[in-house]
Design a protein that fits this description.
Belongs to the peptidase C1 family. It is built from 4 helices and 3 strands, in the order ααααβββ. By secondary structure, it is an alpha+beta fold. The protein has a domain of about 60 residues. Helix 1 packs across helix 2. The model has no long low-confidence stretch (mean pLDDT about 95).
C-alpha cells in the first residue's frame, strides 16, 4: 500500500500533539488513507494535501485502535464531532532544498517534520548512512524526520519510514 504520505502526516500530528503536553497516542493512518479525498489512498498522495484536508474539514484524527490500519484503501468511516481525537489547526509548508540548517532549526523548534524525498537509492539500503544526495526536482516518497546527528564524520538525518521493520536501523 503506497500510504507513506499518510504515515508521515499522522506521525507529525501525533508527535506535535504529544510535545504540546498530551499523552502520545497512535493516531489512525487508515483514517487519512480512506478519507483524505483529494489523495489516492494506497495509490499515493501528498502530505500537504492531507494536512490541508485536515485543517479545512476540521476532521479529528481518531486513535489507531478506533480505526485500525488495513494496508488497503477502504470506505471512509465518519465519527461524531463529540468523538475524541486530534485536529490540525495550522501547519506550514517549506522548501528546505539546500537549507539543512534551517530544517534543523524547524525540527528543534516544532518537532518531527513530514517531508518528501527522492528515495530511489533507498530501495537497496543495507545499513549505515545513506550518502546519496537527493535531488529537489524529484520526490517519490514521504517520511517523518525525527532527528539529526552532526557530531560524527558524516552528518545525517534520522527518519521514520513506513516500509516496515525489515528496512532500516532501529
Amino acid at each position: 500500500c503506497g500510504s507513506c504520505w499518510a504515515f508521515s502526516v499522522v506521525g507529525a500530528v501525533q508527535s506535535v500533539y504529544a510535545i504540546g503536553g498530551s499523552q502520545l497516542e497512535q493516531l489512525s493512518v487508515q483514517q487519512v488513507v480512506d478519507c483524505s479525498f483529494k489523495n489516492k489512498g494506497c495509490d499515493g498522495g501528498s502530505p500537504s494535501v492531507a494536512l490541508t484536508w485536515l485543517k479545512q474539514t476540521k476532521v479529528k484524527l481518531v486513535t489507531q485502535s478506533d480505526y485500525p490500519y488495513k494496508a488497503k484503501t477502504g470506505i471512509c468511516h465518519f465519527f461524531s464531532r463529540s468523538h475524541g481525537g486530534v485536529s490540525v489547526k495550522d501547519f506550514s509548508l517549506q522548501d528546505f532544498s539546500g537549507q539543512e540548517e534551517a530544517m534543523m532549526g524547524q525540527l528543534v523548534q516544532n518537532g518531527p517534520l513530514a517531508v518528501i524525498v527522492d528515495a530511489v537509492s533507498w530501495q537497496d539500503y543495507l545499513g549505515g548512512i545513506i550518502q546519496h544526495h537527493c535531488t529537489s526536482q524529484w520526490s517519490n516518497h514521504a517520511v517523518l524526520v525525527v532527528g539529526y546527528d552532526t557530531t560524527g564524520e558524516i552528518p545525517y538525518w534520522i527518519v521514520q519510514n513506513s516500509w516496515g521493520t525489515s528496512w532500516g536501523n532501529e
